[in-house]
Amino acid sequence: MALGPGDDCALLDIPMNMQLAVSSDTLVADYHFPNAINPYDLGFRCLAANLSDLAAMGATPAWFSLCLTLPQAGPQFLQGFAAGLSTLAQTEGISLLGGDITRGPLSISIQVMGLIPRGEALTRSGAQVGDLVVVSGSLGDAATGLQLLQQGYPQNNEQSWLVQRFCHPSARLRLGQNLRGLAHAAIDISDGLLQDLSHILKASQLGADLELKQLPLSNALQSELDLEQAQQKALFGGEDFELCFTLATNKQPVLAQLSKNLNLALTVIGSIRAQPGYSCFDSDGCEIKLTGQGYQHFYEHTTDDEPYS
Q1: Domains of the chain, first to last
Q2: Would you put residue 238 in left (φ > 0), alpha (ψ -120 to 50) or beta?
C-alpha cells in the first residue's frame, strides 16, 4: 500500500502480472450474528467470513477496509472487536487501509482485496462433466455451534468446539492458493453446501450426483445430533466457510497429497454430470428426496423463525 489510513483515499500499488480480487460483505446484528456475541469473536469472525471469499478465488490477502456502525462507541466493545480483528489480520498478513465509523444499529461492512497471478483465479463456471466434487474440513459444525451459543454457554468440550467453529471460522486461504491450476471451479460454503454448490452448477450449466454417506461430519457434531440431523446441518446449515470445488478424477493422487501437506481433510462427496440440478443418494444407492434450503438473505422471518443461516 502506497498510502494508508489518514487521507481521503488509500493508494494501492498492484504488482505487475497480478490481478486484484475484491469482495465485500455486511453483517448485521441479530441476523448474521447474535447481538450478545463476544466482541473479540465478532471481530475475528467478520474478517474470516470475508477472507473466505478470497480463499474461494485462490487469492492472497493484501488489504481490507472496515465500515462500522455502532449504537454507541463503548470502549469495551471497541477494544475487544479491534483485538479480534487485529489477531486474524496479522495472522493472514492483511492490512487495514481505512474505512468509516458511524452511529446506528450494529452492523459491520468489510471489503477485502487480494492478489492473484493474472489468469489464475478460481471461478464458479469451470466445472466439467466427470469432475469430482470435493469439500474441505467438516460441515454442519458452525450452524450447530450457533444454536448452542443462542441456548447459553456450552456444557462440554464437544459443544465448545462447535461454538468455536461458528465464532472462529478458518478461511481456507492456503487451500485456495494451492487449487490454482488444479481445481476447475470453486466456491466457499457460507449459505449451505447445496445452495452454494448450486451456484457452481448454474454457472457451469451442469449438475451433480452426491453421496450422503460421504459428507464429512465431525465427531463433535455426531455427538450432538443423530445422523439424519447432522446430514441436514451439513447440507443446509451454512457458515462453515469451507471450500467446495471440482477437479478431474485423475487428480485424486494430487488431492491426497495436498490434504496431507495442509493437514486438512479433503473429501470427495460426488461427481459432476451433464444433466442440470443435483441428486443425493443414500448408502444403498437410492435417491433421497431432500427438504430444506440454505440461508435466504431476504426471507421474511416471523417471530418463531430462526434468522440465522
Answers
A1: 18-117 (3.30.1330.10), 132-288 (3.90.650.10)
A2: left
